[in-house]
Design goal:
Elements lengths: L11 E5 L4 H9 L4 E5 L11 H15 L5 E6 L4 H11 L3 E4 L5 H10 L4 E8 L5 H8 L5 E6 L16 H10 L4 E3 L8 H8 L3 E4 L12 H14 L6
Parallel strand pairs: 1-2, 1-8, 2-3, 3-4, 4-5, 5-6, 6-7, 7-8
Helix pairs in contact: 1-2, 2-3, 3-4, 7-8
Length: about 240
């Protein structure tokens, strides 16, 4: 079975909400290191089902080889067996745990698939004590991704909203794991975000989309260029 190229290398520029191969190619061509695919139960909008996502992963691997972006399944699932079934269906070996998963289940996921790249979302405004959550999950994950809760809609991520960057900055300073900053990022604020938070990576979704919901090439180009210019120094 085909396996996705995987990397634990930082910095990371992840862009989520991939709709088709054309969009994935665009992101890869402009230096995006990771592509996020929201899939499975609980996802507000599943842009691609697993079998179609797998085709995108395979095509990227053929076309970009070792330079292909790492493809990440974004899931709300909480049972390791269900998460692994979804990953295998999509041909991916990286996962972003975006729902309410128990620490014991994250630990079990790590034991069952040691080579898996695991990001744990910490949703500011939903997770009351982000640092306490991070301390509990740190032994079992490779990085944290801080995102934004929208209290009006109940959405966690893809809200277009910026959260309190002081929370993410405190997490960076804790040194528990590398931090990927998400939540309302786009070309207009990514420089300020990186300079303020000093993360190991950034993640964007709606901030790079045009009126029709597709990724805008100019926004993607500017976002990736600005982020990658600053991120190599983010861990200092």
């Amino acid at each position: 079975m085909f396996r996705n190229h995987i990397t634990r290398t930082f910095p990371i520029v992840q862009i989520a909400g991939i709709r088709d191969l054309e969009e994935a190619r665009l992101l890869a061509a402009h230096g995006c290191t990771h592509l996020g695919f929201p899939m499975g139960p609980g996802v507000v909008e599943e842009d691609l089902p697993p079998f179609r996502a797998e085709r995108v992963v395979q095509a990227l691997h053929r076309e970009f080889g070792s330079h292909a972006p790492c493809c990440v399944t974004i899931t709300y699932l909480s049972e390791p067996k269900d998460i692994l079934r979804l990953l295998d269906a999509a041909g991916m070996r990286a996962v972003q745990l975006h729902g309410r998963i128990a620490v014991t289940q994250a630990a079990r996921l790590r034991r069952e698939r040691p080579e898996l790249l695991i990001f744990k979302s910490l949703v500011v405004g939903r997770d009351q004590d982000v640092l306490a959550q991070a301390r509990a999950f740190a032994p079992h994950v490779d990085a944290f991704l801080t995102d934004t809760h929208n209290p009006e809609t109940g959405a966690d991520g893809a809200t277009g909203l910026v959260h309190d960057w002081d929370v993410s900055r405190a997490l960076v300073r804790s040194g528990l794991r590398p931090v990927i900053l998400a939540g309302g990022l786009g070309p207009e604020n990514v420089v300020q975000a990186v300079r303020t938070v000093r993360p190991a990576g950034v993640d964007a979704h709606t901030g790079l989309e045009g009126a029709e919901g597709k990724k805008d090439a100019q926004k993607v180009r500017t976002f990736c260029r600005r982020a990658l210019r600053l991120l190599p120094n983010a861990a200092e």
